[in-house]
C-alpha cells in the first residue's frame, strides 16, 4: 500500500537556508532531495520521467530573478515531472494555480533578518555546472575560488553581488507576502525565525515529526 502523501513547501527569501533545511529533512525522514536548480539543468538536457507519487516536500528558492522556485523531496527515486518544478508559488496567482494540482498539507516559512541575508548572499559563490553553493564565511571551498568536486572555477551570480541584494530581497518580500497570507489564512503556515539554521532546525524537525515518522533522530545530525 502506498504511504500517505505529505505535500509541503518551505518558503523563505534568498539566502535563508531553504536548501540546508531540505537536505536535513531528506536525511531525517528518509526522503530524496531533488533540487529545482538541478532538475531544471537536467531537464534542459533532455526530458524527464513521470510524475512522482509518495511523500514530498518542496522548498521555494530564488532563481536568478530572486523569486521562489521549488525544490522537492520525496520517497523513492523517480524524477520529477516538469509541472512540479516551474517556479511557483512565486506569486499569489501561482499559489492558486498550485491548488489545482495538489492541496498542500504544510507550509514552512523561514524568517531571517535582512542584514543576515545580505551578508550571506554577498559571500555566496556557486559552481555553475552543478549548482553547488559555497559561502566564504562559513562554508568555503577547500581552494579559494575553486569547486571542491570538479576543480572548476566558482562564480558569483550577478544578483548575489552586494549592489543587487537589497533589490532582490525587496522583490521577494513583495511577491511572497500575499502567498504567506494565503497559507496563514488556511491554517497550514508554520513560521520559524532566527539567524542560524542550526537553531531553527530543531523546531522544524519537531514539526515534521508530528506529521511523518523520522528515520534519523535529531541528535544523530
TrEMBL record:
It comes from the Eukaryota. Pfam families: AAA_17, ADK, ADK_lid. One of its GO terms (molecular function) is ATP binding. Residues 124-159 form the Adenylate kinase active site lid domain. Keywords: Kinase, Nucleotide-binding, Transferase. Transmembrane segments: none annotated. SUPFAM superfamilies: P-loop containing nucleoside triphosphate hydrolases. HAMAP family: Adenylate_kinase_Adk. Belongs to the adenylate kinase family. This is KAD4 kinase. It comes from Atrichornis clamosus.
Amino acid at each position: 500500500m502506498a504511504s500517505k502523501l505529505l505535500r509541503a513547501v518551505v518558503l523563505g527569501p534568498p539566502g535563508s537556508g531553504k536548501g540546508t533545511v531540505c537536505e536535513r529533512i531528506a536525511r531525517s525522514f528518509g526522503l530524496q532531495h531533488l533540487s529545482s536548480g538541478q532538475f531544471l539543468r537536467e531537464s534542459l538536457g533532455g526530458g524527464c520521467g513521470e510524475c512522482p507519487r509518495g511523500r514530498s516536500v518542496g522548498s521555494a528558492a530564488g532563481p536568478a530573478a530572486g523569486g521562489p522556485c521549488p525544490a522537492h523531496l520525496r520517497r523513492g527515486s523517480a524524477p520529477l515531472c516538469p509541472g512540479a518544478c516551474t517556479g511557483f508559488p512565486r506569486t499569489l496567482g501561482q499559489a492558486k494555480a498550485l491548488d489545482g494540482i495538489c492541496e498542500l498539507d504544510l507550509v514552512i516559512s523561514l524568517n531571517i533578518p535582512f542584514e543576515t541575508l545580505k551578508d550571506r548572499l554577498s559571500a555566496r559563490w556557486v559552481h555553475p555546472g552543478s549548482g553547488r553553493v559555497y559561502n566564504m564565511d562559513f562554508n568555503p571551498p577547500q581552494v579559494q575560488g575553486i569547486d571542491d568536486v570538479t576543480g572548476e572555477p566558482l562564480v558569483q551570480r550577478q544578483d548575489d553581488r552586494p549592489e543587487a541584494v537589497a533589490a532582490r530581497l525587496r522583490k521577494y518580500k513583495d511577491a511572497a507576502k500575499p502567498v504567506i497570507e494565503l497559507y496563514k489564512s488556511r491554517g497550514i503556515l508554520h513560521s520559524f525565525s532566527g539567524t542560524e539554521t542550526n537553531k531553527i532546525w530543531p523546531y522544524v524537525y519537531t514539526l515534521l515529526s508530528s506529521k511523518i515518522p523520522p528515520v534519523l533522530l535529531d541528535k544523530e545530525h
